[in-house]
Design a protein that fits this description.
By secondary structure, the protein is mainly alpha-helical. The protein contains five helices and no strands. Helix 1 crosses helix 2, helix 1 crosses helix 4 and helix 4 runs antiparallel to helix 5. The termini are far apart.
């Protein structure tokens, strides 16, 4: 099962730069990064809504309305992410966009893990984790410069 999740994660990672490129091309056609991002989100939302009808459980549950307000911000964060990559990719390239996004993900992931934020299991920052994060950031700088 661990191999399945590793492959699934790799495929998800491969989807991101592909999405950046697709959205960038869509932006060129529709003339706006906001419109391109909205189209991307709409297609994704409609797809997920259709899939949800075929999964276990009902589509709407009363617990949804009991969730804290901040749990609804995931869509806003996703919209920011898609919009940012749609703007950045044609300006700085796919590799640099992915690199900076990855560096940002590593930095916030370490902070979230260290403090156990947003319900995450705590993983205290230590020297090996810090060195790993720094290596990713150095890698981003190398990719950007060359």
């Amino acid at each position: 099962m661990a191999i399945f999740f590793m492959i699934f994660a790799l495929l998800a990672g491969m989807a991101l730069p592909t999405q950046f490129s697709v959205n960038s091309q869509l932006r060129a056609v529709v003339g706006s990064p906001i419109t391109a991002s909205a189209i991307s989100f709409t297609v994704g939302a409609v797809s997920l809504i259709m899939i949800s009808f075929f999964t276990k459980g009902s589509f709407v549950k009363k617990e949804w309305f009991e969730a804290p307000w901040w749990m609804w911000t995931g869509g806003l964060l996703g919209a920011f992410y898609v919009l940012a990559t749609t703007i950045l990719m044609p300006r700085i390239g796919v590799a640099a966009t992915v690199g900076y996004v990855l560096a940002g993900q590593v930095i916030i992931s370490i902070i979230i893990d260290h403090f156990g934020l947003i319900g995450a299991t705590m993983h205290t920052l230590n020297v090996p984790r810090l060195v790993g994060a720094l290596l990713v950031i150095v890698g981003v700088i190398v990719v950007q410069k060359f």
